[in-house]
Structure formats: structure tokens, C-alpha cells
Write a structure and sequence with these properties.
By secondary structure, the chain is an all-alpha fold. The chain contains three helices and no strands. The protein is flat and about 55 Å long.
Length: 102
């Protein structure tokens, strides 16, 4: 199951990045105009520490960060496995590499 028109892939990727860049640039500029230099560099520093939702937001951010870790490691290990199998490494390489444990 391939793409319908694979030649247009790079064009669509460039278009998508351009649209997202404009979106993020506009959002960042409007945020700076709205709040100025009083905004902290970390999102959680802008919240009131006494407010109960501050801890909820912090827990949500930590959960998102840690839940992505497994996805990234899985993709990395699959890439390493595919490279090693293409280079003619023996079949027994998998038991000796720490990548296999991930």
C-alpha cells in the first residue's frame, strides 16, 4: 500500500512545515505582544504556585514527556535492527546488543 502520488510527498511536507511555521510564529508573536517580557521561559513558572491546577498541569506535562520516551526508543531500536540486518550481521547479533532489550 503505497502513496497515491509519491512524487508530491516532498512538496506536501514543505507546505505543511510552512503552514505550521506561520502558525507558531503568529502565536508566539501575539503571545509576546500580549504578555511582553513578563513571561517566563518555562510554562509552569508562569502559573501561581498556590493554585491547585498548577500541579495538575505539571503532572500532565511529565506524563506526556515520559510516555513519548518508549515510542522514540522503539523507533530507534527498529532502525538499528534494520540497519544491522541489511549490513549482513549474523542472526545471533540480537542477543548481544543492548538495543534488543529495549
Amino acid at each position: 500500500a503505497g502513496m497515491y502520488k509519491p512524487m508530491k510527498y516532498s512538496k506536501i511536507v514543505m507546505y505543511s512545515f510552512a503552514v505550521i511555521s506561520v502558525f507558531y510564529g503568529t502565536t508566539g508573536s501575539l503571545g509576546y505582544l500580549m504578555y511582553g517580557k513578563s513571561v517566563q521561559d518555562m510554562v509552569t513558572k508562569n502559573f501561581d504556585p498556590a493554585h491547585p491546577l498548577t500541579k495538575v498541569v505539571a503532572v500532565c506535562l511529565i506524563t506526556v514527556a515520559y510516555s513519548k520516551h518508549g515510542l522514540y526508543i522503539n523507533a530507534l531500536s527498529k532502525s538499528v535492527e534494520s540497519v544491522l540486518t541489511r549490513t549482513g550481521a549474523p542472526d545471533s547479533w540480537a542477543m548481544y546488543l543492548p538495543v534488543r532489550l529495549l
